Amino acid sequence: MAVTQAGLTLVSTSWIKALNVELLKLHPSLVRNIEKRTENQLLVQSLVEACAGTPTQVYATGVRSRGEWQTLTKRGVAGGQGDFFASSQLLDTNVKKYSQRYSV
């Protein structure tokens, strides 16, 4: 099971062990300028520590800078995605952006 947008709201972390979560993806607002925001650093570190002893790995989304990535890895984040790693690519305009199963 994967959990997305972790850290968007503050809640108990007991669900991490109870639900057998494999992947926990941090909300981009938690990642943004984290190198300058000690409260976000503490929250990320708390989430990583709550996952200790479980198969859960913490990943960051929306990583834009080296400073953000270095801070996240120092806090125990296992991986990440965002413009720091690879910039967003435009979709081919000839590709339909909806499922073929449903009529639009």
UniProtKB/TrEMBL annotation:
Protein name per Swiss-Prot or TrEMBL: Anti-FlhC(2)FlhD(4) factor YdiV
Quaternary structure and interacting proteins, as annotated: Interacts with FlhD in the FlhC(2)FlhD(4) heterohexamer, inhibiting its ability to activate transcription.
Recorded family membership: Belongs to the YdiV family.
Pfam families to which the protein is assigned, alphabetical: EAL (PF00563)
Gene3D superfamilies named in the record: EAL domain
Organism domain of life: Bacteria
Keyword Lipoprotein carried by entry: yes
One GO MF term attached to the UniProt entry: cyclic-guanylate-specific phosphodiesterase activity
